[in-house]
Amino acid sequence: MLAIERTSCCPITPRTDYTIFRFSFDTGMWLIAQLLALLTVANGTPVIAAKVFGNILAVPLDGNLAFLDGRPLFGPSKTLRGVLLSILVTAAFAPLVGLEWKVGALVAFTAMIGDLLSSFLKRRLGLFASSQSIGLDQVPESLLPLLASRLLLPVTIFDVVLATVIFLVGALALSRILFKLHIRDRPY
Q: I need a labelling partner for 102 at 20 to 30 A (CA). Which of 54, 89, 153, 154 fits?
């Protein structure tokens, strides 16, 4: 059994049930909103960091190595700075939405794994870095953290599916807005 320390501001209890469908508007939607906020911060932090810091400490995670197919492993836009800042900023943000910092760190870490997975798959498909691939760009970086959050929070499969769909639609809309505000270099 997993023992998790409880604090008065942000209680976390270990999962003891594995309910697939539980939905209460009061608790279910609030938890989904909290997780969507964390996902937005986790996935947005590297983008904003790239805009603010440019090439400063932008060390590519793959060390510019090529895979067996001769293409980059992840590409130049996946940096150590982006991953570390995502984890730190999201962990610091989590208590602001009523969750433990550990939940924020877990969400960010698994979001970055999902982002790296999608970049790896895009390189294998011959797509260049920062190219658009609807679904492949959004689903791994939301689905993996939402599934991982089931370890610490009472998140159901229904919550995971609903939040993944909301994230996909929201990410597409938000990317266009960030492009118009000159925060993103592309509208996707």
A: 54
